[in-house]
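lol so apparently i was supposed to do this last week
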Amino acid sequence: MNPQLHISKDPVAVALEFAEMLVALAGQKEKLHVALAGGSTPQLLFDKLASDFIGRIDWRQIQFYWGDERCVPPGHAESNYRMTKKHLFDHINIPADNIHRIRGEKDPLQEAVRYGEVVNSTLPSKNGLPCFDLIMLGLGTDGHTASIFPHEMTLLEQKETCAVATHPDSGQKRVSLTGPVINNADQVAFLVTGSSKQVKVMEIIRKTGNWKGYPASYISPTHGELHWFMDRAAAG
Ligand code: 6PG
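anyway here it is w/ 6-phosphogluconic acid bound
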């Protein structure tokens, strides 16, 4: 299925558009299983959800997970959980049981197994795999997504729900969802802003240049929908 492109004029407009999609999804089901992206791009979206949209979603409906997490403690500056707590969870009425944190402070291999078991046991199954209602993804300037990096493309096919990844530059360990689970979601939505991503976005969507070398090029839901939420700077 061709990706659905949502191009907005600037990052704020992208955040508002993405938030509206989340409101629409929350209106369709009693319980939503949503995996969040990390990094910096989602911060603005989380700020908007925690302000303009705070009353438009019954947060008790949403079970929050992560597509990936850095193997650092939850209070560490690089923790995706910490960023999400600061920009979203601290401002909304969300039960603690709805937040399924990847325990970055634990042994990476053991946590990948544990978190995989949480996802497998908590989510409904489709095609023999856990099925997220929505997985939010970012895009790295090297074409990575979640923590599937170009030097570890095998994670795109790994059968385990979660795997340990290694950042190519820093060597930092990550726990990441693997390709089959990501592609088994009902909705997969990239959230990408800024001109630094423009070339990669174009190569991935148009399948030109070195697109085959980018993990994000292999995000293609088997039954669900693929969305790209971008500003004009990223969409070119
Ligand atoms: C992470 C992410 C990662 C991120 C991209 C884009 O844990 O870092 O999940 O895949 O989405 O690297 O990061 P920015 O939003 O900071 O550009």
